[in-house]
Amino acid sequence: MSNFRWTERIDPFAVLAFTVPLTIYLLTLAPSVTFFDSGEFLTAIFSLGTAHSPGYPLFVNYAKPFTYLPFGSIAFRVNFATAVSAAAACYGVYLIVCHLLAGEELAANTRQSEIYKKIIALCAATSFAFSARLWLQSNHDKPYPLIAFLSAMVFYLLLLWRDRYRQGEEHSAYIYLGAFLCGLAFGAHQTIVLLLPSYAFLILSMNWRLIWRIKEFILALFFGVLGFAVHLHLPVRAMQNPLLNWGDSKTLTQFLWNLLRRGYPSEKPVRDLSLLWDQINAFNIPYEFTWVGLVLVLIGVFAFLKKRRDEILAYLIGILFFLLVIAGYFNTPLEMIFLTEEFFTPLYLLSAVIIGLGLFAWCRIHWL
Fold first, then answer.
1. d(CA 43, CA 49)
2. Which residues pair with 50 in a beta bridge?
3. Distance between CA 330 and CA 359 in Å, rounded?
4. How far is CA 335 from CA 263, 310, 322, 332, in A?
5. Is a pLDDT exceeding 80 seen at residue 168?
6. Residue 334, exposed/middle/buried by CB under 10 A (0-12, 13-18, 19+)?
7. Residue 339: C-alpha distances to residues 258, 298, 336 (Å)
8. Distance between CA 165 and CA 203 in Å, rounded?
9. Whole-number Å distance between alpha carbons of 210 and 231
């Protein structure tokens, strides 16, 4: 008989990083329709239609299979789908933290050190799970947890590619898969575009001459477009006249009108310093993770700035581009800022990763 031990094949901490948030989310799940876009999303998902611009085709198709679950109302089943994607995003935090801490020591005993690092990664995952933003989004139909999960997977794939590149191996498949997921994620929420500079930096910081690899660039673009093809849902389903068919994307003109959000008001408010501060403050780490979380973020940035310089800079580049576009370009009116607060969810995921690094650095100072 085999001496199989499940703990050697299955990481129990990784399981907890997914199941603990999922359990809490299910206990606090909204039983029915909630507020704002909820009824619209539910109608689009149930009828495989198109929600408000830009249509959210990936979110619609992701949540649709959950409507066949044999329990609860349609609203409850779609809310269940969101809870699963939120828990998966927490697992993404765990995965990235474990990878970034590989090779680090926290105890003289290697086995014990690995366990400590996994506990820290689990703490980072739960810090994201119980952040105000993700917990709010997890209990009803929202696409933001799904985009957070996909952004984490792209980040992780690029970390794997960087490891292989350091070893002198060309594993472009990681980049191609990441490009596909970026294109696919565009169908969950367009804010994935704001992470592209961070992803590009993770690639080019290994070797700036990679920018001249035209063949690989074209292939990555092809896979990105392949993922983006999920938007064919809009014209294909429009032809079927579903129950909700926002924008009626039967023609190229209507498709672009929907995709580019041309139906939204374009008049922007006059901005003063007070409004600018409110717009910037939509990204608020202390509110999401408490002041302790902010301190751990700062510790993580400074403690790993030398050893994990590129990853830290990619995080800071992400913050810069999110703020430049969401706070700078969008110039959101005061009464609508609560909507843009949700756009920062992928950044909060990366912030939770940095919190894990900060917690590790703090433990190493006090334990070793």
1. 8
2. 245
3. 35
4. 19, 37, 20, 8
5. yes
6. exposed
7. 19, 27, 6
8. 10
9. 30
Strand partners, 245: 50
Q: For 13-27, 48-62, 97-111, 222-236, which range has the lowest pLDDT when averaged over its residues?
A: 97-111
Q: With H, G, I as helix, E, B as strand and everything else as coil, classify residue 188.
A: coil
Through-space distance between the first and last CA atoms of the chain, rounded to whole angstroms: 42
Q: Does the pLDDT value for residue 59 go beyond 50?
A: yes
pTM of the model: 0.94
Q: Pull the structure tokens for residue 305.
A: 């700035």
Scanning the chain, the segments in alpha helix (DSSP H) are 6-9, 12-27, 38-46, 57-63, 74-100, 110-129, 132-138, 144-166, 173-185, 196-204, 214-228, 233-238, 252-259, 273-280, 285-304, 309-322, 337-340, 345-367
Tens of pLDDT along 129-155? Answer: 999 999 999 998 899 999 999 999 999
DSSP type of residue 324: I
Query: Helix, strand, or coil here: 245?
Result: strand
Give the pLDDT of residue 6.
45
Share of the chain above pLDDT 90, in %: 76
pLDDT tens digit sequence for 209-262: 988 999 999 999 999 999 999 999 999 999 999 999 998 999 999 999 999 888
Domain ranges of the chain: 10-260+270-367
DSSP 141-186: S-SHHHHHHHHHHHHHHHHHHHHHHHTT---THHHHHHHHHHHHHT
Q: Residue 58: name the closest of 212, 200, 167, 190 by CA.
A: 190
What is the DSSP secondary-structure string of 257-303? HHHTTTTS----PPP-HHHHHHHHTTS-HHHHHHHHHHHHHHHHHHH
Query: What one-letter code names the amino acid at 21?
Result: P
